[in-house]
Amino acid sequence: MLSPYGLDIVESCLTCKMRVERLFCDLPNAALQAFENIKYATAYPKGAVLFVEGQAPRGIFVLCKGKVKLSICASDGKTLILKIAEPGEVLGLSASVSGKAYELTAETIDPCQVNFVKREDFLRFLRDHSEACFKVAEQLSEKYNAACHEVRSLGLSHSAAEKLAKLLLEWCSKNGEAAKQEPRLKIALTHEEIAQMIGTSRETVTRLFADLKKRQIVQSKGSTLIIRNKSALRHLTVS
Amino acid sequence: MLSPYGLDIVESCLTCKMRVERLFCDLPNAALQAFENIKYATAYPKGAVLFVEGQAPRGIFVLCKGKVKLSICASDGKTLILKIAEPGEVLGLSASVSGKAYELTAETIDPCQVNFVKREDFLRFLRDHSEACFKVAEQLSEKYNAACHEVRSLGLSHSAAEKLAKLLLEWCSKNGEAAKQEPRLKIALTHEEIAQMIGTSRETVTRLFADLKKRQIVQSKGSTLIIRNKSALRHLTVS
DNA sequence: CTAGAAACGTGATGTCCGTCACACAGGGTT
DNA sequence: AACCCTGTGTGACGGACATCACGTTTCTAG
User: Fold this and answer.
1) In this complex, is the C-beta atom of B130 within 8 Å of any C-beta atom belonging to chain A?
2) Which of A152, A187, A218, B54 has the smallest C-beta neighbourhood within 10 Å, fewest atoms?
3) Residues A98, B143: C-beta atoms closer than 8 Å
4) Burial class (CB in 10 A: 0-12, 13-18, 19+), A144
């Protein structure tokens, strides 16, 4: 079997083992078979662009493996990263449903396996399989929820420090590290990218980290960050 | 027929004349009849709170008449208005679908007519009527789109002036005034509320309006605002 | 192993805007 | 009339942060 970009391709959704843990993929057999017939299993290298904001929707991209950066971009080049999509997420969904342009840009940050489905095929699929249609609604709710969180973080924070603290705590809970005394985080992003996630400048992020380290709130070991004082961090998010 | 709060109540969805122009309401007859059986037609005065962020989802609220302010609120009381919902919009939809808490607060700013449907009834309704399920997906896509716009405005703007200009231009296009040479806007919100829409302070909004007037870009006549120099306004949104 | 690039660290400087403070204007109520 | 109460206009001040500039470290590729 081919393995482009060092990926272990899952050939068929019918035999995919991670299916049950994924919001969209856990469909009844009939629907899954129909999906199997209209999907194109594809692979992308790191740095590939799945779609660009403003493009007319070509279809949906079910992310099977790897991570994808979702961002919006201003005319002057300033970029804001909305989220890093994980396997199981369906990308380009809302644009494909509504028919409006993609509202953001999707770019792989790992080698990725993706199931692509053309918009017309997908819409027909939804009409024929109401369970899938409900899954779509669930996915969209999830996305809307995430967007609301982003709005809250951007709009209601008083300082960049607050936003950074929120981001770090969020990362902790995503990795199941939240409960631990001293959570550890693998920082896969550059200061520049973190800045783009919280809507500030790279220099500010650098300075904020320096400050957190000086105050013994965090400590970095190579590319992992150790949260030494969780409550202090949480305190930053409320003030 | 009763007319609480001075409203002209539309008793039944089956005979509602505005149905066709509304994204969610334009359903096949069977679905509409089923919806009719589970909905509660209700009316609210101005200032009523339909639901509060953080509450467990009780159900959905189909807005038939009036306007509803959708906002999120920080622990310190700072508020951000996400949008003003218009008739035809379904409120509390994503929370009811996903089962997570309402992500924002909905408060009427006019006397409103609302069709309420309990969550369990609504979910059963969606299972039985796949057309409705697709409408829900469309509504959610719409909401997601709006949220992305909000994120863009909050996260990628360089100044409060830019955000205000964007807001004014958006209002123009909503009222079909965008094409006119000198669009007119009925300003129904206070400076305070406008500030909450663009995430700034009331004083800043006052100063920005004063500046726009001094520069002859806008002009106010009572509660209507006349855009005298649309291109200058548009210029503020790009710089 | 070395060159070049990419990422990070840090100072100096300016500015936008939040905050406080108070004055004023209009609309309702008693 | 006198009174509130809400909304608006405006000055003074300071802090957070963007920007520019440049040095240093780490990574990557030839």
Assistant:
1) yes
2) B54
3) no
4) buried
Per DSSP, what are the bridge partners of residue A85?
A: A68
**CA of B14, closest CA in chain A: separation in Å?**
24
In angstroms, the CA B34 to CA B23 distance is 18
State the pTM of this model. Answer: 0.93
Dihedral of alpha carbons B90, B96, B102, B107, sign: positive
Closest residue to C15 by CA to C1' distance? B159
Quickly give B190 CA vs D5 C1' distance in Å: 15
Q: Which residues contact B232 (CB under 8 A, 6 or more apart)?
A: B215, B217
- Reported as a single tens digit per residue, the pLDDT across A145-183 is 999 999 999 999 999 999 999 999 999 999 877 788 899
CB-CB contact of A127 with A69 (8 Å): no
A214: left (phi over 0), alpha (psi -120 to 50) or beta: alpha
Q: CA end-to-end span of chain A, whole Å?
A: 55
Interatomic CA distance for residues B79 and A24, integer angstroms: 34
Give strand pairing partners of B85. B68
Burial class (CB in 10 A: 0-12, 13-18, 19+), A34: middle
Which positions in chain A touch B156 (Cβ < 8 Å)? Answer: 72-74, 78, 80, 199
**Chain CA centroid to CA A38, Å:** 24
User: Looking at beta carbons, which residues of chain B come within 8 Å of A127?
Assistant: 130, 134
Q: What is the pLDDT of residue A3?
A: 56
Would you state the pLDDT for residue A186? 93
- Whole-number Å distance between alpha carbons of A69 and A90: 13
Cβ contact B165:B157 at 8 Å: no
